[in-house]
């Protein structure tokens, strides 16, 4: 038996009725990913809800009754599951509900495999169905959106996007890093919202690094043209920029300042969807923050002098973290200690 909290019960009901907030969708996404049985239950309830007749759609959603109907189906018939159909004692409001997660294993596994949970965002006033894909540390994922836009998600990143684009702008929300190859559509601009910035394009290729837990965002334009809006902490516009091919904008979110630079000959030729982290004249503090996201570790810089060391180079996610540290410490001036999942770095 699986205990379902009141918050999860409310999120399930809102999800089935198409009124889930973004927070509820994320809660269900996390819950479904914890256990395949959770995903099975969610998948089964979703299909059972869709099969309701007109009369039953008038009343409120009864998740417990739906669970019992789900268990009564022939594909779930077994002594153990039939026993689960015995009437349960009436419970007071404010109870916790218990479920027996069953069936739909293959379909639920496919749902979780792509890391997507569809729902509706009642909290933002949007009517379209949204998907969320999360990529773990040390990995990447490639998806194709409804309009044909290709997105390569980098490590420890999350993208929220509509299942289908409507008549207005094509909008997505990113926390992390992703490479976009946007399908051209002059009547429907493509907008990538991320922490303290928005990127507006018609059809182009570009890379966005915008982890909410890092101090700097970087937008790299490879082809076409993009408009970049930089925002303050309250979401008000600080500056609008237009980037040209092979131009890069570095936005310091703490200071509210930015700088533009151009890609060198090597950076212009390499594929930006290859899972490689490239850095030019970046401090060890910035690189350490990115390594934490890429590898899912904790890195502590013990003294300020170590934070200010600057590097230019690149590394692939296929490299082990100790190999990356070996490159950064090529001159032997760093002392690196490991304690489980935590690394401490100081100058010798």
Automatic annotation (TrEMBL):
Pfam families in UniProt: FecR, FecR_C
Keyword Transmembrane helix in annotation: yes
Domain of life: Bacteria
A GO term for molecular function: sigma factor antagonist activity
Domain (Protein FecR C-terminal): residue spans on this chain: 277-344
Protein keywords: Membrane, Transmembrane, Transmembrane helix
All residue ranges annotated as the FecR protein domain in the record: 133-226
Annotated PANTHER family: PERIPLASMIC SIGNAL SENSOR AND SIGMA FACTOR ACTIVATOR FECR-RELATED, PROTEIN FECR
Listed name of the protein: Anti-sigma factor
Organism: Alistipes dispar
């Amino acid at each position: 038996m699986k205990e379902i909290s009141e918050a999860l019960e409310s999120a399930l009901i809102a999800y089935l009725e198409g009124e889930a907030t973004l927070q509820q969708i994320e809660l269900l996404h996390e819950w479904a990913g914890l256990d395949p049985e959770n995903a099975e239950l969610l998948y089964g309830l979703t299909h059972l809800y869709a099969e309701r007749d007109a009369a039953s759609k008038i009343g409120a959603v009864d998740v417990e009754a739906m669970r019992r109907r789900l268990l009564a189906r022939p594909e779930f018939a077994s002594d153990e599951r039939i026993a689960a159909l015995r009437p349960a004692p009436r419970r007071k409001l404010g109870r916790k509900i218990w479920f027996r997660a069953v069936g739909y294993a293959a379909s639920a596994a496919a749902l979780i495999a792509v890391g997507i949970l569809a729902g509706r965002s009642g909290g933002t006033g949007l009517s379209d169905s949204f998907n969320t894909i999360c990529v773990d540390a040390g990995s990447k994922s490639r998806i194709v959106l409804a309009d044909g836009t290709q997105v390569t998600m980098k490590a420890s990143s999350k993208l929220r996007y509509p299942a289908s684009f409507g008549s207005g702008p094509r909008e997505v929300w990113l926390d992390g890093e992703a490479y976009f190859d946007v399908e051209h559509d002059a009547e429907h601009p493509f907008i990538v919202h991320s922490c303290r910035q928005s990127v507006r394009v018609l059809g182009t290729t570009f890379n966005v690094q915008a982890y909410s837990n890092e101090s700097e965002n970087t937008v790299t334009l490879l082809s076409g043209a993009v408009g970049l809006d930089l925002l303050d902490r309250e979401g008000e516009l600080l500056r609008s920029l237009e980037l040209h091919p092979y131009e890069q904008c570095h936005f310091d979110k703490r200071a509210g300042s930015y700088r533009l630079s151009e890609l060198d000959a090597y950076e212009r030729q390499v594929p930006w969807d290859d899972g490689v982290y490239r850095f030019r004249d970046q401090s060890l503090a910035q690189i350490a923050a990115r390594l934490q996201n890429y590898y899912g570790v904790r890195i502590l810089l013990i003294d300020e002098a170590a934070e200010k060391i600057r590097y230019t180079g690149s590394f692939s996610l296929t490299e082990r973290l100790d190999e990356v540290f070996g490159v950064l410490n090529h001159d032997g001036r760093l002392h690196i200690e490991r304690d489980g999942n935590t690394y401490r770095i100081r100058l010798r």
